[in-house]
Amino acid sequence: MRPLRACLGAAAAVTLAAAGTTALMASNASGATTALSNRWYAAAPYLMPLDNNPPNAATIMDATGLKAFQLAFVLAPNGGGCSPTWGGTAAVSSDTAVQSVINTIRSKGGDVSVSIGGYGGTKLGQTCADPASTAAAYQQVVTKYGLHAIDFDLEEPEYENTAAIKNEIGAAKILQQNNPGLYVSVTTAGTADGTGWFGKQMLLEAKSQGFTPNNFSIMPFDGGFSGAAAQTSALTNFNLILQSTFGWDQATAYAHEGFSGMNGRSDSGEYFSQADFQTVLDYATNHHMDRFTFWSLNRDRQCSPPDNNGTTSGTCSSVAQNDWDFAKYSVKFAGVTPPTGTPTPTPTPTPTPSSTACKTAWSSAAVYTAGNEVSYSGHNWKAKWWTQNEVPGASEWGPWQDEGAC
Asked: What is the pLDDT averaged over residues 326-347?
């Protein structure tokens, strides 16, 4: 997924393992103790709660009937280490902002899964020493938020790192064992053949460790896909890969298979419309697949102009739509009919800027690290990670976060 965006040791992992079934139900600020059905976690679309102009989750719930959200992304600290953060900068241990979003969702009868990894930043599997310490880092996330579901988004460049993937798959297996009932999804890149060489190596690593998640999902976009027909063909091919890798029959493979799409315009200029989503949804339900989700709710609204001048945005879809059109397909996958009326939305708070003054002008020669602020082209920008000579705003997925006009 595109994020338009010191370890606990083995001894700590052993302590967590000894906790066994208590880990999932540990006390936390949200007080969550009741899980939704697995179908809802399987239908949870991705939401970046801290970046890309986050929409109000309560508004989406009221408008669509959606109950589950896939919050993204938990990463290693930008400066290195084996402790979980949101986006590489906000420590999970001291977080209150994401917790507030979760509390709002749960107060309306919903719940969340948390996604680790994604396309950008450094992953915990890359920085933690082994599967046990990687699992201990993720257990902090599970315990703090009282999670009933977690997603391992394993893609480039991490999935090209054999040691990192061994850590991630090993950690997923440990979490699954220590948190009975935890819904675990593994998401990876899709190709016309199903998934590429590195995706297949990841599956073989899971097989070698004896790990079976609720599903292995592929992302059939950014790979020369042309609409739903190309996506369903990839899903058929991926099913064959699951069969040959794990020795499953076709039905068992579909029961462990998932789809993770991208609504509207993809990073590589593919377009996926509401009709494409309906076609893939029909395929997923007809084949009794386990998961149907998409990237992302931040993008589930119309750009202005609707085509966004032929560019891909992290905050709108670049196709003609009503707000939350694509979320309704997730609701249908969960087995619920979306509302047909016009619900009264929950207002999205408008943040009050602390200052409209421009920061020091960006310099192509300067080195910037996470949190540094500059001004460029009439806007202030904040660095997400280390960068040099990367123009603010040049890439939607680049190192700079737009803080607005100055």
From this structure: 77
Question: pLDDT for 265-309, tens place per residue?
Answer: 999 999 999 999 999 999 999 999 999 999 999 999 999 999 999
In 369-401, which positions are buried (b, 16+ CB within 10 angstroms) versus exposed (e)? ebebbbbbeebbbbbbbebeeeebeeebebbbb
The conformation of residue 120, written as its DSSP 8-state character, comes to S
State the Cα–Cα distance between residues 256 and 176, nearest whole angstrom: 15
Burial of 118 (0-12, 13-18, 19+ CB in 10 A): buried
Count of residues in the chain: 406
Other CB atoms closer than 10 Å to residue 90's CB: what's the count? 18
Residue 61 has pLDDT above 90, yes or no: yes
* Residue at 356: amino acid letter: T
Give the mean pLDDT of the chain: 88
pTM: 0.79
Task: List Cα–Cα distances, 130 to 87, 164, 174, in angstroms.
Answer: 21, 8, 12
Rg (the chain; Cα; Å): 20
> Catalytic annotation on 403?
no
Name the catalytic one among 155, 158, 168, 270. Answer: 155
Non-local CB neighbours of 178 within 8 Å, separated by 6+ positions: 16, 17, 19, 20, 23, 135, 139
For the record, the structure tokens of 261 come out as 């799409």
| pLDDT tens figures, 4-14 | 433 333 333 33
Strand-pair partners of 218? 188, 259
- Angle in degrees, 0-180, between the axes of helices 97-107 and 57-64, rounded to the nearest 10: 20
> Hey, is 18 helix, strand or coil?
helix
